[in-house]
Amino acid sequence: MAKxxxxxxxxxxxxxxxxxxVFYIDGDKSVAEAIRLMRAENLSSLIVNGxxxxxxxxxxxxxxVVSKIVAPDKDPEKVKVSEIESRPLITVSPDLLxxxxxxxxxxxxxxxxxxxxxxxxxxxxxxxxxxxxIKV
Length: 136
Prior knowledge:
136 residues, alpha/beta, CBS-domain, three-stranded mixed β-sheet
């Protein structure tokens, strides 16, 4: 019974389940700017652009804001995104099975991965996206 319920989640591919809307921010922007963008677009994360074409992407999440700005009582206007982002951004292929993405996320202790087609980030896959694939 459990295998039947999870079949869609196990055999779906990252590219089929991902959220296609990806928003970017530069690391030299303030965390306050990131917060405003995240609120305006109802986002839980932003991809942080690399400083150079060969510099890896990063990611900043609502959790980063809460744990690295709110909890230590820092001013989001004075802190740059690059100071709280996570790097490097973990990426997966659009063809990777969601089951394998979930295993990777669990192993790395993260809640989302970027879906990268070899040329560009084409989406984000979050634990919420995976949760919604489960048919009950």
